[in-house]
Amino acid sequence: MTFVLHQALCCPIDAAPLVIDELSLVCEHGHRFDVARQGYVNLLGPKDKRSKDPGDSKEMVSARAAFLNADFYRPLADACLDVTLGYYSTVADGRITLMDAGCGDGYYLHHVQENLPKDLRNRISLVGFDISKWAVQQSARRCDGTWFVGSNRHIPMTDASVDLVFDMFGFPDYSSFRRILAPQGRLVRVTPGDRHLIQLREIIYPNIKPRSERTQYPETFKVVSEKRITYEMILGSEDLKYLMLMTPHMFRSTPERRQQALNHDELSLTVDVVVEELIATTA
Ligand SMILES: [Zn+2]
Prior knowledge:
Blueprint: E1 19-21, E2 24-26, E3 32-34, E4 41-42, H1 58-69, H2 74-88, E5 96-101, H3 107-115, H4 118-121, E6 124-130, H5 133-142, E7 146-149, E8 162-168, H6 174-180, E9 181-192, H7 198-204, E10 221-236, H8 237-246, H9 255-262, E11 266-280
Parallel strand pairs: 4-7, 5-6, 5-8, 6-7, 8-9
Antiparallel strand pairs: 1-2, 2-3, 9-11, 10-11
Helix pairs in contact: 1-8, 2-3
Bound molecules: zinc ion.
């Protein structure tokens, strides 16, 4: 798909604006970033490269895409759409920018884009990034947008340039999020509740530690809305395999216990997530 240059995108080295020069983005100091033919750009700063191939592997990204494309998490994507429409209704006119921080394979932003009323589609800019280049490649394949490889710690966007930041099961960096959020903007967090995938966790772990019920937020953010989404989904053995591959940190266990889970032809699992909208405080 086509890479879209967002006006707030900036050089990861010196934060200077980026402009398109043939098949690259360049800043006024001559830093140059090639736009890949798949429609994304790598803006990972030198400080963010801890390994040669950071983030989710190609295999994990494929598993995630296979799982999400079966729409098991569609209600979560619908919640993203609802938040977007709700927010847009408070904006007098003009454009809004949606960002998925840790966009994975792009499922959520693409779902929002696809389901927006037609007149809104070209007023909403999509920005998605992930530390995994495989994930960003997959996102760029789904739809046009400002897709880049990057990390939460150093988001190459100018201050106050984003209206909605989605953090879907991610690892938030609150100071970065606060910096890029527009004054009226919102951080939208989707996090697992206590019973999320409980049946699978019971098979995999000998003892399940209860999660702490509430996320502690820094003083710089406050929750303005909270919604819980719970439902059951029935997964076949292939789907179970994808689910465990896409979230290995969640299912780190012995091979025997993992295999025990995979031996099920079918498993009914509870989805239990919390969707919170947060605004920046004046603190
Ligand atoms: Zn530069």
